Amino acid sequence: MTNMTDTDMYSKAAIIGVGLIGSSLARGMRAAGAAKSIVGYDLQADVRARAVKCGAVDAAPPTLEEALKGADLVIVSTPVGAMAAVLAEVAAKADDGALVIDVGSVKGAVVEAATSLGGRVHIVPCHPVAGTEQSGPEAGFATLFHHRWSIITPLARSDGAYLEAVKKAAALWRAVGAEVEIMDHLHHDLALAITSHLPHLIAFTLVGAADDLESVAEAEIVKYSAGGFRDFTRIAASDPVMWRDVFLNNKAAVLEVLGRFTEELALLQRAIRWGDAETLEKVFSRGRALRRAIVAAGQEKDVPNFGRDEKA
Amino acid sequence: MTNMTDTDMYSKAAIIGVGLIGSSLARGMRAAGAAKSIVGYDLQADVRARAVKCGAVDAAPPTLEEALKGADLVIVSTPVGAMAAVLAEVAAKADDGALVIDVGSVKGAVVEAATSLGGRVHIVPCHPVAGTEQSGPEAGFATLFHHRWSIITPLARSDGAYLEAVKKAAALWRAVGAEVEIMDHLHHDLALAITSHLPHLIAFTLVGAADDLESVAEAEIVKYSAGGFRDFTRIAASDPVMWRDVFLNNKAAVLEVLGRFTEELALLQRAIRWGDAETLEKVFSRGRALRRAIVAAGQEKDVPNFGRDEKA
To answer: What angle do CA B287, B291, B296 make, to 5 degrees?
Structure first.
């Protein structure tokens, strides 16, 4: 990660939606010296007050207009379902030439919305693939993006000002410790459907199925969760509204990878029913190599059990 | 956890199958002073040598007979598929009155096998709900069972010697830091199907589905795995043979909970297809409460992202 030089420093950054990602970016930018002042805006007065109180932002004015005034950098970090409306408002009210970065987990819907908004501000759709199961301004921390990938899916604009804006967005992500990949938005939505959206859907499904099981008490599920179940509850504890919006806005790609998943599951179900040991062992043998690759790429800690064991 | 007094101390413990669980139990028993000597036996000469070399056991004789000779405590910690045969051999060759504890993740199949073996030794079927995704004697550690539950599913014997054996098995688990629950084996197999077997099946399925996706490269799956996928690769990296045996031996319960899971998944699939925001948000809102309960019960660390984040 590189500190930004004074000439690169933004004079004012406005974070619209000060949750986990917005507040982490604010903290990361402050640590990197990326902006002289950082303000936050959130629809909820309570969140605005908390964002200031926990030190994520310098101030949180009560109106979007005030937050945007004089901002040469705008981060839109609301749930995906609100992005089209927020981007339209930002495009109408932000200063001329402002760099506007959104951080939504789905990019097709954002690219579509942003494309219709004209070129007075420069909207660069981004997705930092990082997060935790917690939410709210207090949950953010400056190193959230360290060694994580941020994907940029640029609009179909080739004017110099826009290309410059994309370069500046990439530099900002690198300043907060991320690596940058530029990608077509459709491919993004498919790649993230398998690496993020489907895992969340499955985790939510498992928790729902366990909750509905009348033959096994919740107290037992809690007690014996160390058998594997507890792993799934981490992402199943993620923000319900954020994830509702992800699925509503990435329908096609999610249904496509879900189809693949249910095919594979049917294969294993059949193998269990018919006692097909060979198929089970073959499929089960694929996990280790992929995990090793993820550890080798620095995307996971190289410790058993996520390091959660007490080793006396 | 309580240290065992000298009068409770076993004179020789034999660990049959020195993998993650067997070697962890050996180490935990040594730390608790539970046995004067601890020997290991494994079908593979290589594993026997490694079990001694890494300090898990004091010795690893080349035959089962030698390992069992003089042992008043026998731990059977092989994959579930081998248990019936190993228990039969142990029942034939172990010293009269030895306490024999198996640690298999499925109990119906073990109880069935053990019931037919007569009462010369006392077989107490157990399942410590603990583990990591690693395997082999080097993967074990003494504190693996701390604050985890060990479930005992006793045979249908009510003679005093057997009831005493069950009490001694419970004391042994407590000595290595576990809490003990006594349960019917059928209920065990259903409760573990939802808390452990199904989560593993789903994780293996997801990794298989991702591996098969020709439109998203493995390198991309690795890069963006922090979006959620990496969580699943932990348990998908578990021992394939052990898990093959679990599914072959707990068919009915796994197919039952799998049916519940696919029903719930179909509900969510339909909600995504039809844009049913309300259903999605409702199901997604159930995760947090269950995770909080698991954390409160001491079955999970109270830190975001399993504590794997670097916080500078």
So the answer is: 150
Between CA A241 and CA A151 the distance in angstroms is 22
Pick among 3.20.20.150, 1.10.3660.10, 1.10.150.20, 2.60.120.200: CATH of B187-301: 1.10.3660.10
In chain A, list all ranges with CATH 3.40.50.720.
6-183
Tokens 């000060």, residue located:
A18
Q: Which of B177, B141, B134 is nearest to B55 (CA)?
A: B141
Mean pLDDT on B272-297: 95
Which one of A247, A248, A254, A262 would you mutate to disrupt binding with B, by most B Cβ within 10 Å of its Cβ? A247
What pTM does this model have? 0.95
Determine the 3-state secondary structure of B145 from DSSP.
Answer: coil
Task: State the DSSP code for B197.
Answer: I
- Asked whether the predicted pLDDT for residue B119 surpasses 90, the reply is no
List helix spans (H) across A38-93. 45-53, 64-68, 80-93
The H or E element containing residue B39 is strand B35-41
* pLDDT tens digits for range A20-67: 999 999 999 999 999 999 999 999 999 999 999 999 999 999 999 999
Whole-number Å distance between alpha carbons of A190 and A218: 35
Average pLDDT, chain A: 95
Q: What is the dihedral of CA B67, B68, B72, B75, to 10 degrees?
A: 80
As given in the structure block, the two tokens for residue A74 are: 């705008």
Specify the pLDDT at position B308: 87
Q: B58 falls in which pLDDT band (50, 70, 90)?
A: very high
Confidence band (pLDDT; 50, 70, 90) for A214? confident
Task: Classify domain A6-183 at the CATH class level.
Answer: alpha beta
The mean per-residue pLDDT over the stretch B215-220 comes to 94
Residues carrying CATH 1.10.3660.10, chain B: 187-301
pLDDT in tens, A226-245: 999 999 999 999 999 999 99
Q: For residue A180, give the chain B residue with the closest CA.
A: B223
CA angle at B311 for the pair B310 and B312, rounded to the nearest 5°: 110
Contacts B181 to A, Cβ<8 Å: 223
Q: Can you give the pLDDT at residue A125?
A: 98
Determine how many CB atoms are found less than 10 A away from the CB of residue A66. 14
Is A304 at the interface with chain B, CB within 8 A? yes
Q: Is the dihedral of CA A208, A212, A216, A219 positive or negative?
A: positive
User: According to CATH, what is the number of the domain A187-299?
Assistant: 1.10.3660.10
Read off the DSSP letter of residue A213.
-
pLDDT at A7 over 90: no
Strands (E), B3-121: 10-16, 35-41, 73-76, 99-102
**Beta partners for B128?**
B150
Residues A118, A123, A126, CA angle at the centre, nearest 5°? 145
Residue A281, phi then psi, degrees to nearest 5: -65, -40
Q: Do A300 and B224 touch (CB under 8 A)?
A: no
What is the residue-averaged pLDDT of chain B? Answer: 95
**CB-based contact, B221 to chain A, within 8 Å:** yes
CB B122 within 8 A of CB B100: yes
- From the list B132, B220, B284, the residue facing A304 with the nearest CB is B132
Task: Give A52 to chain B, closest Cα distance, Å.
Answer: 21
- For A89-117, write each residue's pLDDT tens digit: 999 999 999 999 999 999 999 999 999 99
